[in-house]
Design brief:
Largest sheet: 3 strands, antiparallel
Number of strands: 6
Shape: globular
Radius of gyration: 15 Å
Number of helices: 5
Helix content: 25-40%
Strand order of the largest sheet: 1-6-4
Distance between the termini: 44 Å
Structural class: alpha+beta
Amino acid sequence: MKDLKDQILQMITEFPTTSFAGLSRIPGFSGDRGLFVGDDANNVCMWPLLSQEACDAIRELLVSESIHGQTTSVFTYTIDGCVPRMPLAMKSGKHKKPHWLPMTFKPGPAPVTARHKKRKETVG
């Protein structure tokens, strides 16, 4: 049997724009941990219901650029029938209480934007 990280990567590869709601169908994915953007102090939560193994797997896949995340509409999660009971993160920066940032995942590294490309050219 494949480990959780491999199962997550397989699902995202087969179904680009996979949401956390979709990933939660993988046995062992769901739990009582939250995965936050940046550090926990920002209180911007990507998903509040992961197992520790799933948190670690998602972090490893993001750092290795095997996958990348992108924000999405709350309707993506409404369609999947799984919306966390927390306010939406409508602004960047710190929040006093945890806020949810709806995300989906695609395989591979994040695309290079024109802004990042220009920055690399001036630095190099």
